[in-house]
Amino acid sequence: MSNALIIVDVQNDFCEGGSLAVAGGAGVAAGISRLLATEPDRWDHVVATKDYHIDPGLHFGNPPDYVSTWPRHCVVGTPGSEFHPELATDRIEAIFHKGEYSAAYSGFEGHAENGEGLADWLRRHGVDRVDVVGIATDHCVRATALDAAREGFATAVLLELTAAVAPDTTDVALRALDGAGITMHGAPVIRAA
């Protein structure tokens, strides 16, 4: 069996300067790149997810409530949907797009270009353990890690390589991860309340 790194939504719109920026996002991108460079043999496989909105309906709000509706972000064909330039992408073997026509938080809701889902891709490559990093700790990282555990993968979140939206939602997320038996390392980057 083998292990994989899942990089969640390290995209321009979720980093500083983006339409739905999370403080520390650019630093997370750079940190993931450093780790991949300094520990090239740590993971057998590296995959990534992308928020990839075409017309996600009520996911975009005007005005947004920042609970279930959000500003326009990661629209297909815009610079905001691209990976942040600080993220090294040369090791990424597959990208799983999610949220084209509805809200999607977990990378396990996404699909590769050929339509294959993340769980099926990981199983086809003999993966039994995953580490999850990316943006945001309290939303898409949380959902992806919880689904990884539900799918039967031994799951860890490298919190020092995640950026969180807010302290209160991060506390809820960390309790959920702990309750699901997910291993956590370090602490997430959280903006001041």
UniProtKB/TrEMBL annotation:
It comes from the Bacteria. The keyword Metal-binding applies. Keywords: Hydrolase, Metal-binding, Pyridine nucleotide biosynthesis. Its EC number is 3.5.1.19. GO terms for biological process: pyridine nucleotide biosynthetic process. GO terms for molecular function: metal ion binding; nicotinamidase activity. The keyword Thylakoid does not apply. InterPro entries: Isochorismatase-like_dom, Isochorismatase-like_sf, Isochorismatase_Nicotinamidase. Pathway: Cofactor biosynthesis; nicotinate biosynthesis; nicotinate from nicotinamide: step 1/1. Residues 4-181 form the Isochorismatase-like domain. Belongs to the isochorismatase family. PANTHER family: LD05707P, PYRAZINAMIDASE/NICOTINAMIDASE. This is nicotinamidase. It comes from Micromonospora sonchi.
